[in-house]
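Hey all, quick one. A colleague (J.T.) asked me to put the magnesium ion job into the tracker so the inputs and the structure tokens live in one place instead of scattered across chat threads. No bug as far as I know, just bookkeeping. Sequence used:
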Amino acid sequence: MKLASFTTDGRTRIGVVEYERIADPCAVDPSIPTDMTEFLTAGAKARTALDAALRSAPRRPLAEVTLGAPVPRPGKFLAVGLNYADHIKELGAATPQFPSTFAKMSSCITGPYDPVHRPRVSDSMDYEGELGLVIGRRCRHVPKERALEVVAGYVVVNDLTVREWVGLTPQVVIPKSFDTHGPFGPWLTTADEVPDPQALSVKTTVNGEVRQNSSTAEMIFSCADLIALLSQAVTLEPGDIITTGTPPGVGEGFTPKRYLQPGDVVRVEIDGLGAIENRVIAEPDDTAFIDT
Ligand code: MG
């Protein structure tokens, strides 16, 4: 099942994508949570209600609605760097013995087809196409062999990064969290449709030119490894996202470096999960403000 968050007529709710249409189960059963985090938190009961509502749910063309990030404001947006052997090589970094974990702030999240901002303070904006997983069950200290049981589904992520700021501070949280720098989607593909998350192609193009083309088989720490490790430290909760690192081909790895410019269109596609596509625009003037 492809679970989306969509907006039409000024209201946002979850829906189910079926080819070129989207079904609106909340329209026929008001007990179904309209917010993805609440829906996932409600567990099997909500899923049963959704399945039943789908029989009579109204459908509309996908092109007539606006898709948002499937989980608009997750409690946690966790990430790992340096998780593909070839990417480590292109950056000249050492292979980590322990996952290089960090967090993106959830305020950086934007929709799968929304514009993303080239910051006014730096021209070193770079793409990182990644597989993301969304947690479906509250958990802690999950053994690796059971780790995939807690995954609700998978998403396509672009872990946009301001490279210059990565070099200015030992902490990557802020360089990874500029507003609009966390697009993901286009929907949450439920885990039952992804038999092996370590066998998915990941492809990133900029203006149609292939920049990244790899497989999640190249990961050093698998999805299960990351869940097992992170849950040793924190309780994972429904809606939390873990993005799993990027393969080779980032703009930083070229000589000269090929950062994103206004007008560029960056697309990330993963086998069976669909694609997200974001146009880069110069950061608009209206991002400078102080509320009264
Ligand atoms: Mg990354």
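Adding what we noticed when we looked at it: The longest helix spans residues 36-54. The chain has two domains: 2-68, 77-285.
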